[in-house]
């Protein structure tokens, strides 16, 4: 099962100078000629470049997949319960034991906890079982030729040629996700070039077939994205009946002492990092699950930009490290899709930027909900309710 792309792709837009300066479109064969010239200009031999492109074909299925990207519409509790199955828990714990020496090296070299990578490994490819069957070279060249995001995909093609030149990529046989991610933790060619690690010592970085390579590379990539060694990322908490709910969300980080003074307490055990700033995360409002997110939580958004996915992956990482099942609480009911669209229209009419009227509780809609809750004197926890809808 595939999940949203890394932030590199999700953040892409069709505007800006990068797009204007990046060749795209035209005949596919002519486009490949241009790519070959770029690769040769970067130092590759004609034989290497011709060898890479010998089997490359346009892939209409990759284009179709790009245009039907899904967006998470489930609330956090429902989504987490669907993804975090007993099977994934059991496999995660078994793999933690099987690859303990690899995880020990990752913690030593990159400071990343086993639970973090185990969760990504589980969600991205079910521990390597489902890695995608799109021909990677075909997909990357096709998406680079397409004029939606050529400035993102063209460098990935050139990176794939680099991998091919050193014997770590077969353009005829390498397969993965529709947007070019490869291997057990789904990394793009450029990320593999920059962060690939030969974890098993065979002289190659093989993210598709070697768990040590994939895990070590994922750990290095997280470090590259800003992961802070040895620090926690998420901790479940209990919140008081009353507090300034407008301080909750991903924008406000406060010392734990301030959250504690407001009545926020760890649900179990002690504070994991009393000296670190933290954000209060209420994915379903003040009556639902509650967490504090430490600075490392922000790194998840560099890997993926879906709030629900990020929170679920972060929470699953804590579960794999021994945290209890979260308390779902008793949140106000989720608005229906039609109600969410109605709410978004009302918010837009009040001048809020909620993006597309699509019935999805994205970051823009959450921010607008919180602002209107505060204006109306309602608990400003960013969770849309029928009460808010009526008052608007």
UniProtKB/TrEMBL annotation:
Keywords: Lyase, Signal. Residues 28-316 form the Transglycosylase SLT domain. Its EC number is 4.2.2.-. GO terms for biological process: peptidoglycan catabolic process. It comes from Thalassovita gelatinovora. Residues 336-391 form the Peptidoglycan binding-like domain. One of its GO terms (molecular function) is peptidoglycan lytic transglycosylase activity. Residues 1-20 form the signal peptide. The gene is mltB_3. It is an enzyme of class 4 (lyase). The keyword Metal-binding does not apply. InterPro entries: Lysozyme-like_dom_sf, MltB-like, MltB_2, Peptidoglycan-bd-like, PGBD-like_sf, PGBDSf, SLT_2. This is Membrane-bound lytic murein transglycosylase B. NCBIfam families: MltB_2. Pfam families: PG_binding_1, SLT_2. PANTHER family: LYTIC MUREIN TRANSGLYCOSYLASE, MEMBRANE-BOUND LYTIC MUREIN TRANSGLYCOSYLASE B.
